[in-house]
Amino acid sequence: MTNDYSYYVTDSVTFRKFIGQCDEKELYKCEVLGDTIKAVKYSRRIRYGKEIAIDSVYFSIKSLQNDGRFD
User: Fold this and answer.
1) Of 3, 38, 53, 56, which has the fewest beta carbons less than 10 angstroms from its beta carbon?
2) Does residue 41 contact residue 31 with C-beta atoms inside 8 Å?
């Protein structure tokens, strides 16, 4: 049996954006780069000393705040 986890980015006031789901073998790491949030999905397996990136998405913080959506 696997558990799926939902991941969101939020500023806790004006937006909450769903970025994806992971099971126990995956995880998301987020980084703020100026006005951009970079969310990268990784496999928890390590190959040659490095995590394996599966997917990535980018969001504009200003755009998220202007939309004001709570997914």
Assistant:
1) 3
2) no
